[in-house]
Design a protein that fits this description.
168 residues; alpha/beta; Ubiquitin-like (UB roll); DNA polymerase, domain 1; 2 domains; two-stranded parallel sheet; 32% helix
């Protein structure tokens, strides 16, 4: 009953505001949005709120675009944004190890550095290098099962890594 009365009150306010020229602004909602932190070689690094389903190119545009020092060849503009993530745009000559990973967030197999991958259980430095080499030679992983093409990664390792990683 209360919700019905509240809804009627809002509808009345909207009708009255339309006649009086008043503008009603409802508080922002997190529903249907992602909040991301863009760092590195962009004009205005910072936190941006974008529509859910947005890709990295939209976040970079919101951050003023790439700077002249950005290593555009190492930026996957098609990556789908994940709420609460940080995305770092590398500068030409900058090592990938300088990109940070959000603590507790799944590690992205398509963007993680060798050092980050080496922290995964059962991977180590050799496995991490095999993953990066595979990624560089054959392109991004489209699904977790693509890891089975990497030497040293078997079905048991794949299942252990699945909850800790993403291929977005």
């Amino acid at each position: 009953m209360f919700l019905l009365a509240l809804g009627g009150g809002i509808a009345l306010l909207v009708r009255q505001s339309a006649r009086s020229g008043l503008e009603i602004t409802l508080p922002p909602s997190d529903v249907g949005t992602v909040t991301v932190h863009i760092t590195g070689a962009v004009a205005r690094p910072g936190v941006y709120v974008l529509p859910e389903g947005s890709r990295l190119h939209a976040a970079i545009d919101a951050a003023g675009g790439l700077t002249v020092e950005a290593d555009a060849a190492r930026v996957n503009l098609a990556v789908r944004l994940r709420d609460g993530e940080q995305y770092g745009v590398l500068r030409v000559g900058e090592a990938a190890a300088q990109v940070t990973q959000t603590v507790g967030a799944p590690l992205n197999l398509n963007t993680a550095s060798t050092e980050q991958l080496a922290t995964l259980p059962g991977i180590g430095q050799v496995g991490a290098q095999a993953i990066v080499t595979h990624r560089e030679e054959r392109g991004f992983f489209r699904r977790h099962e693509d890891l089975l093409e990497v030497p040293l990664i078997g079905p048991a390792t794949l299942e252990r890594l699945r909850p800790m990683t993403t291929v977005d």
